[in-house]
Input
Amino acid sequence: MHLSSYIYLDISRLIARAGFVVPTGIDRVEFEYADYLLRNAAQRLTFVAITPLGSIVILPFAEAEQFVRQTEKIWQGHHGLCRDIRRAARRMVQKAMLGRQITPVAARACRKSVYLLLSHHHLNRPGSIMRFMRRHGAEFVPMVHDLIPIEYPEYARPREPARHEARMNTVLELARGVIVPSQAVADSLARYGMRRRADLPVRVVPHGVVKATPAAGDFSVPERAYFVCLGTIEPRKNHLLLLNMWRDMVENPGAAPVPQLVLVGRRGWENENILDMIERCPALQGTVRECNSLSDPEVTTLLRGARGLLFPSFTEGYGLPLAEALTLDVACVCSDIPVFHEVAGDAATFVDPLDGPGWRGAITNLMVGEIAAHRPGARIASAALFTWPTQVGDGLAFLEEL
Output
């Protein structure tokens, strides 16, 4: 697309997670915007990041571009780059701190400049954002991924609800417009800021899905039937429902063999009960498998061979694993919550996240017959599935409309 605005793209989140081999959904969003802008509008792009001292600085372009490309390689399985990219990230920020913070000539020639922050990384630092906006004459457009710490504080770390309120207050005070991934998040933001910024422009831009690339031949999936649960291991993802169900299946097996459960995702927080079951429950040993360092191609291969994706979250801002699995024509059983209906349409099986027998029945059903018989097939047409370039283009079009 043609951009008439100059974009200051903040990649602080990617820098903070430099060397992590498994991206979160927010990591993915920040990368996809960086990738798209590098390919299509590099002449109107400057990378920025916040420093340990709290100032937002312009990064050396060539080094930032190389950092983005190395991040992509790590996610694709080149884990030997992890140590190098962490060092490169530190050097890049240090170099930026020592450099002169001059507004780029190309930015002065554009009709407006936009400071685009696609993560929640430092939304609780309004002073830093305001100083950057004033120095470079930029409007502020953030992406709000969810309001979960405010609406469901029981799923957040103790200090997180107050910090997230500070983030949302920054959005309401400084943002020219806001991008959100779902109507569910738009509704949450409207409820939170109804009295303060009823006129705040909000654009719903659902996340895209990465083009599937299968893993190399040396990656093997389990030989016996298996299901995949994809996401950070934390309480709101409701792993305990699945683990208790799997223990019961092992201890009280029916006529059919018990499938494996593969948990894909890094370990989060407040998850001691979940980890105790994974590590210490005898019935789960050899039946529940934890994978927290798979590359994108390996996850693709794993999903394609699964009986189905299980996604029993209590709440989500979007639910990227659901979109990714449906794109691969994988059967999905997910929580009966509004945002999942928004993403999956009629292409998934919906079960209340507290309905253990309902989940057991859905899993039993997916174990009958061949995998192909349970694929969503034509029902995928009802799902909201998009490519990343299309979605980034939509987000950038919103900046132009503003």
